[in-house]
Amino acid sequence: MTINLNPSDKALVPFVSVDNMMRLIHHVGIEPMLRGLADYIEADFKRWELFDKTPRVASHSAEGVIELMPTSDGEVYGFKYVNGHPKNTKDGLQTVTAFGLLADVGTGYPVLLSEMTMLTAMRTAATSGLVARYLAPRGADTMAMIGSGAQSEFQSLAMKAICGLKTVRLYDIDPAAVEKARRNLEGTGLNVVACKSAEESMEGAQIITTCTADKQYATILTDNMVGSGVHINAIGGDCPGKTELAPGVLHRSDIFVEYPPQTRIEGEIQQLAEDHPVTEMWEVMSGLKPGRSSDKQITLFDSVGFAIEDFSALRFVRDRIAGTDLYFDLDLLADPDDPRDLFGMLQRAKG
Amino acid sequence: MTINLNPSDKALVPFVSVDNMMRLIHHVGIEPMLRGLADYIEADFKRWELFDKTPRVASHSAEGVIELMPTSDGEVYGFKYVNGHPKNTKDGLQTVTAFGLLADVGTGYPVLLSEMTMLTAMRTAATSGLVARYLAPRGADTMAMIGSGAQSEFQSLAMKAICGLKTVRLYDIDPAAVEKARRNLEGTGLNVVACKSAEESMEGAQIITTCTADKQYATILTDNMVGSGVHINAIGGDCPGKTELAPGVLHRSDIFVEYPPQTRIEGEIQQLAEDHPVTEMWEVMSGLKPGRSSDKQITLFDSVGFAIEDFSALRFVRDRIAGTDLYFDLDLLADPDDPRDLFGMLQRAKG
Fold this sequence. Notes:
2 copies of one chain form a homodimer. Chain A is of the alpha/beta class.
């Protein structure tokens, strides 16, 4: 099977199911795929100014949020559907599920539909690893991983694959979650340490990743917990009213973000003044602004996830499934022989 | 096959392909389905104030536009992906293709994915028929149908099914398109008259529908072509820079719209002052404002298509496919037994 873009094939859209996404990840390898995703994301961050950028379109309810995240580089258009429902886990459902699409800007025809629950976990971790490669102290090899939810193992492995992490120190308020993550990371080559407190997890760590899901634990890192010379990778403060860091930590840090108009609404910096200085990661990756500038500096990546990262991840998937059996074609688009004859196509289907 | 919303089934999303949509339309019957869609749209217009409403999110390029149209009634969320590329027909592609989704607001989990190229044609026609039932002159039985593109036959049949239309008078600048539409409407019970000019098509017509695709033909109706006492159903003026009616026609008409913030950007009224008075159709359907108030009045439905109509159409499809074989389940959502154990699900898939 190959992806053929001849007009006669455009009625069919290649679809990557959850099952095929997992097969793709194992086909490429988890760590090589995390590195590959980081390469695609870095390439797109370096051509940042080409993209149509808009804050995500959110539909909020009492239970959570449903968002559409569109972007375009002028040739390819992409969007992701993603929900965030912290209470879902109580009913045995995912907090976050997602799917995404790429389309040809020239025709408007979709060219890829893909699950993105797995892929979002992979791209979020790849982005964290990529950013840490620019911002973490030289030689950083130990990470405190606070929160052992669905993102935890992906974060740990991305730091290993992309930054050379050797030791991860796990903490979660739920010991069963820590045990789940410890067990999952067995045999990956990481030295895994289960910790009984956030403070314990941070001993000797040059990288601190915060990734908790529930709005009610609003201060994961207090000011006195954070020493100098570390890199904070703050994943979980990602919607209005949901933050994980004490304001004091923010004030002592140099803050790096994806897209300021979105991060100021959704990220840790919603706690700060609207004009608090931040640096955009695309500027660091393009060499326009410095990343880490001293050993004593606290760098903070206030990560909320941006549409371009999903676009990069979908590009990676599209490129990697070509010539494989890791997708099937969906009959998603009506494509009559004569485009003006949609009704005739419908009539002929009756026979 | 039934749609089961038990948690264990939520990883699978019912999908209606183009083929199954055409089977559904014939299963229900084209005219009964147009009436059914009109009923669902009317029911949603009557509870208009419940909905989250936002102008569509558009990504414009030199060749066309790709849009996302989200809405929610607080319990169900829906969105449509739709493109508009007038030049596509030259390459044998559809000007407009679309697909859509419904999701549960409480969990954020999608509950229906459907093709919407066919369905959009059906809902656009059903909306026109529904609005004409409120605005067309009493006893209107003849329509001028200007433009014989993909929407033409659907518009004609919707006016028959919903308003009792008996005669349609077809005109297009391309005689082959007129012939296509005439042939397709044979045997439907409509009296079909092929005309050689827009003026000829309007002889004796109480309803005038304009539905042309190309931006270059910007004045389909001039002021001296339109007499009093008609209903104009203006479909084709539906994006910035694309209009079909002379300003004089607009100034003589009482104008009815779906959602003013969107219509003022995309509809015929983009030619008028920002505060030009318009009436919202939901107010007419709810009995809050009058529709047609005199025999001499020119009523104009400045139709651009709104997200709630797609929402209604998707609701109709979801209700009608239950218990049928007109869909299949897509493996779109990763749903591990333990929602925090996404990585474990990935690892277990390796074996």
